[in-house]
Amino acid sequence: MTGEAHEHGITLLVVPARRERYAAQLRHPKNRQKFLARLPHFRDWDEPVVHTIPGAEQNVGAIVRRLRALGAGDECWVVSPSKRWDARAMPLVEAITNIVGENDGSIVSCVPGVLAYYEGEELGMRLVLHRRQQ
């Protein structure tokens, strides 16, 4: 999958009223920073896709297992305010290892529009974003 497909898929996981706006921001380098600046405290996820990770499972191994059980493959795409990780394809385990505990508001897209991991700035703000395929 291309980064473009993953980033479009991320916008499909947000509330419908904000999708077009966020898609436009992600597509344009100047506006991308506006989207990235929102990520540490992002609250515009489409409620049916949000699945909070229980406290005991908020570790790299458990998160990777959960994502794989829902259909994640070996590669993913990262969107992050951190220049080290933003707009990069990388192995899933590496991405989750790098993101967990950073608390900077990052998204790991596993299956575009269907499955992603989000970690916000607040303690315990670790979410699986999963839209059941029909």
Describe this structure in words.
The protein has 134 residues and is α+β, with helices and mostly antiparallel strands. The protein has one domain (3-130). The chain has 5 helices and 6 strands; from the N terminus they run H-H-H-E-H-E-E-H-E-E-E. It has a 6-stranded antiparallel β-sheet, sandwiched between helices. Strand 4 and strand 5 form a beta hairpin. The mean pLDDT is 94.
Task: Offer a concise description of the structure.
This protein is an alpha+beta fold and about 130 residues long. It has a 6-stranded antiparallel β-sheet with strand order 1-6-5-4-2-3, with helices on both faces. Helix content is about 35%, strand content about 20%.
What distinguishing features does this structure have?
134 residues; alpha+beta; 5 helices; 6 strands; 21% strand
Task: Tell me the layout of helices and strands.
Blueprint lengths: L2 H9 L4 H12 L1 H10 L11 E3 L7 H10 L5 E5 L8 E4 H8 L6 E6 L3 E5 L6 E5 L4
Antiparallel strand pairs: 1-6, 2-3, 2-4, 4-5, 5-6
Helix pairs in contact: 1-2, 2-3, 4-5
